[in-house]
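Weekly structure sync, notes
Attendees: PL (lead), two postdocs, one rotation student
Agenda item 3: pending single-chain targets
PL asked that the sequence for the first pending target be pasted directly into the notes so everyone works from the same version. It is reproduced below exactly as submitted, 231 residues in total.
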Amino acid sequence: MFKLLLIEDDQSLFQEMKQQLNQWNYAVYGIDDWSKVMETYASTAPDLVLIDVQLPMFDGFHWCRMIRAHSSVPILFLSSRDHPTDHVMAMQLGADDFIQKPFHLDVLIAKIQATLRRTYNYNQADSGNIIRTWQGATVDVEQNLVTYNEQSVELTKNEMFILKQLLERKNKIVSRDDLIKELWDDKRFISDNTLTVNVNRLRKQLMKLDLGQYIETKVGQGYIAVEGEHG
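Predicted structure, written out during the meeting:
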């Protein structure tokens, strides 16, 4: 049974979501004390976190930063605010998806299922080949780590999934449409801009290891993970 932590202060919505998610065999936990959000996160050890943007004391972006400082657990944002900057901010902070309120619960469940599937199932399927090499770096798919010159960066699940897809086809263009299909299963559940944000975030992380330039953008086509000379 997957454990979900729902950081939502609207008790009516929380109870409605919990009831529906319980029917899908998810264990749902909430926040009882808003001064102890991270303590609840640590004790729950959830498989996925859903966070509202507007919350008591600190907003959802704050808690996303706090969680991302310790974990690459998948994070889905929920928000009634209609600001494009909120969506971009969430993705830049490492969120896996952004869901606009009001939403149909069937859509929410589909997004949760897709996120859990790509987060946990692909690691199991790839268990025989979890270590890859690229440009002299070691890419540990299972641990979401890229190591180069004795330095490492930890990627989010989405970032590693994108890198993994590119490394499976080194020096070949992987189209944006193919990446969207692989990542989110259905285009209806993802925007083109979200993919751009995720790739830019991946490249920013790799820049810390001086590897970001080897993820090349081919305008109007897609992306390439370059193996060998950059060019």
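Discussion points:
- The CA atoms of residues 97 and 125 lie 23 Å apart.
- Confidence is low (pLDDT under 50) at residues 123-128.
Action: rotation student to compare against the earlier draft before next sync.
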